[in-house]
Design brief:
Strand content of chain B: 35-45%
Strand order of the largest sheet of chain A: 3-2-4-7-1-8-12-11-10
Order of helices and strands of chain B: HEEEEEEEEE
Oligomer: heterodimer
Helix content of chain A: 25-40%
Number of strands of chain B: 9
Distance between the termini of chain A: 18 Å
Radius of gyration of chain A: 19 Å
Number of helices of chain B: 1
Radius of gyration of chain B: 18 Å
Structural class of chain A: alpha/beta
CATH architecture of one domain in chain A: 3-Layer(aba) Sandwich
Order of helices and strands of chain A: EHEHEHEHHHHEEEHEEHEHHHHEE
Strand order of the largest sheet of chain B: 1-9-8-5-6-7
Largest sheet of chain A: 9 strands, mixed
Shape of chain A: globular
CATH superfamily of one domain in chain A: Thiolase/Chalcone synthase
Shape of chain B: globular
Number of strands of chain A: 12
Mean pLDDT of chain A: 96
Number of domains of chain B: 1
Amino acid sequence: MSDVYIVGVGIHPFGRFDKSYEQIGSEAASQALRDAGVSWPDIQSAYLSRMYLPATSGARILRRLGGTDISIVDVEAACASGGAALRQAVLAIRSGETDLVMVLGVEKMPRGFMDPSMIYSRWQIEMGMSLNPSYWSMRAQRHMYDHGTTDLQIAQVAYKNHRNSVHNPNAMYRKEFSIEEILHSPLVCDPIRLLEICAPNDGAAAVIVASGSRARRIGRYPIKIAACSHTIARYSADFRCPADSMSTTANNPGPTQVTAQQAYERAGLGVEDINCYEVQDTDAFCEIEIYEELGLCPLGEGGKLISEGRTEIGGDLPVNMSGGLISKGEPVGASHLGQVVELVCQLRGQSGPRQVADAKVGLAHVLGAGGNCAVTILQS
Amino acid sequence: MSNPTSISAASPAKPARIPIREGLLSTPLTDLSAVRLMGSRCTSCGETSLGTSEVCANCGRDTVTSLPLSRRGHVWTYTIVRHKPPGDYKGPDPFVPFALGLVELPEGLRVLTPIECALKQVRIGMPVEFRAFVREPDGGPEVVTFAFAPSAAGEARV
């Protein structure tokens, strides 16, 4: 299979803005074009990752860059939309039909909890099963029971990510909180607290993807997409919104395990080769579970990894150098591409105070409704 | 609004009871103490899933038979929902925090359900029992919904 490269990146900060989604998106897209040193007419096709925007949002946003007749397709796969869209770009380039593709992720979301009718059935909403953090919390509660994971360890994840965000100008919250402040923030759904969950918000991120020959001609910091995988959870493999039950006998591996395994095999790389990670920390417990499912540690030992400081920027397995979704917020369509932008900057050595020393390989992971999961591995 | 006297002298027919979700509860819904959760068991792969279904949620074959699920199980995990869930939540207004959990049933599945008990009481392994009840009326037909509540008998399991 031919190699595919990221040759340019752009990001609009994640937060709350009095701007239209078209504005937010076109700013990120323009920045990515400038970063790649190419112009809008050079792009041969484009994908928009989004969940809460109207039909043909991609075309509405990108026409602001100039009239065009290229294929622009909106892609939706819940929290993994960005991975699903990036995968389409990789496949389009591998097909030989195009050699320069834009992938844009944009979201502008209502304040507060997400509109439940997007993912839940009416009866679940009526019965009070439509609060996303309740699903995260039930997994946390069982993990604590089975493996002895503690409230302190969950708070330590939030502490680390909030602290990392201080150095990220694109994050929504850039404030460090003490462990005590986190542990005394209000419970949302036991055992998960307010300072341990992410907020939906607005934001955009864009990448320019090129074939090997095109990347060589452009010549600026090409970063190889070693793998880009997207899967949905196997039968009863993931208790996540909007699940209403689980099998006790199916024993299928979880979507993070399955997707990561596929990505590791396609990249020909393993955890021992990866220098930094950006993962789905919609809640602080989730990051602990993902350490285990990505293979950073054995199942059940994720709590130990955070307690020992191994996932801090200076640790041997740095995770969420950007501050994670807990501090950036989660503009669903833009979140994975935001992670990819962070990793590209890390692999280029452009991340300033949050730079991981000698980062050569990075992994981005998202996981959401319906067990949609994406894993992208980038290599300098 | 219709005027009852203009339609018939007889008392208007009692509105039919409907389940909170089609296929989730056994019928009839008249005697609530006899109502059970329904499941579908696949004779090909052996998996049991929640609610009646034409095809198996695991293998996709049509070799499924419906069965009423056990009334008794135990709490496998839980949380306390401390904020009013978004959307058209039909619980108490103003909102009252409640326990939500997965209850493990002997048929090989765990069911997401409200757990009716004191918030401090809920524990993993706590034995619980199914309860069907008519939801607070809101003008339409009576809606039969469900919850699990601590059962007096039965050993705690995990």
